[in-house]
């Protein structure tokens, strides 16, 4: 699932870059950088899990799970904080906003397994982004705005499922599928925008 998500994330980054070259809209550049980071984190996490699996879960390789997750978490943290910053900048709010401050506060921490603190930070960032895209959707009432809102709402729901999967393991595959769905919605929106310009 992580390798599929990596491919979709890189496709999103590529389409966002194409859109940026066509429109010079800075939000698309932030989206490109964010999804390059997210894709990189997913690839590292997927590769580390694959190495541990191929090594038949030997103790010498178990630490790779932690390293892969830590890199994936930090990549997502910076990516979503960057998107929060982009929405704050776009709205011309006063101050630097919560994104950079959250990223700076969390950087010294290493989360070696999926845990409530890391997921809550990502949920907070994603709920903010989903709220902003929801407001934009209400104002613009277009199908592209609806796709963006659906994408970030799906990503927020996916991380809520990642948060509660320790209580009920069935939520882990639901989280993975919901995350993929969010990525696909965002990719569809970018393909539509790039075709129309």
In short:
By secondary structure, this protein is an all-alpha fold. It contains 7 helices and no strands.
What does this structure look like?
- This protein is an all-alpha fold and 197 residues long.
- The protein has one domain (2-196).
- The protein is 84% helix and 0% strand.
- It is built from 7 helices and no strands.
- The chain has helices at residues 2-23, 26-54, 59-90, 98-106, 116-140, 143-164, 171-196.
- It is globular and about 50 Å long.
- The two termini are 32 Å apart.
- Mean pLDDT is 82; it is low at 93-110.
List the helices and strands and how they pair.
Blueprint: H1 2-23, H2 26-54, H3 59-90, H4 98-106, H5 116-140, H6 143-164, H7 171-196
Helix pairs in contact: 1-2, 1-7, 2-3, 3-4, 3-5, 5-6, 6-7
List the defining traits of the structure above:
197 residues, mainly alpha, 84% helix
């Amino acid at each position: 699932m992580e390798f599929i998500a990596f491919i979709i994330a890189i496709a999103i980054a590529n389409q966002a870059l194409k859109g940026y070259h066509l429109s010079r809209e800075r939000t698309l550049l932030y989206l490109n950088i964010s999804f390059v980071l997210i894709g990189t984190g997913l690839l590292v996490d997927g590769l580390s899990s694959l190495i541990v699996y191929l090594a038949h879960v030997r103790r010498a390789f178990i630490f790779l799970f932690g390293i892969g997750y830590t890199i994936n978490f930090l990549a997502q943290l910076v990516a979503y904080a960057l998107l929060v910053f982009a929405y704050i900048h776009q709205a011309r709010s006063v101050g630097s906003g919560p994104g950079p401050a959250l990223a700076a506060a969390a950087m010294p921490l290493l989360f070696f397994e999926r845990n409530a603190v890391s997921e809550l930070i990502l949920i907070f960032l994603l709920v903010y982004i989903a709220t902003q895209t929801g407001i934009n959707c209400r104002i613009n009432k277009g199908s592209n705005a609806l796709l963006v809102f659906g994408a970030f709402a799906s990503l927020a729901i996916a991380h809520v499922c990642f948060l509660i999967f320790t209580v009920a393991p069935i939520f882990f595959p639901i989280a993975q599928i919901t995350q993929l769905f969010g990525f696909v919605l965002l990719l569809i929106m970018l393909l539509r925008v790039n075709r129309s310009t």
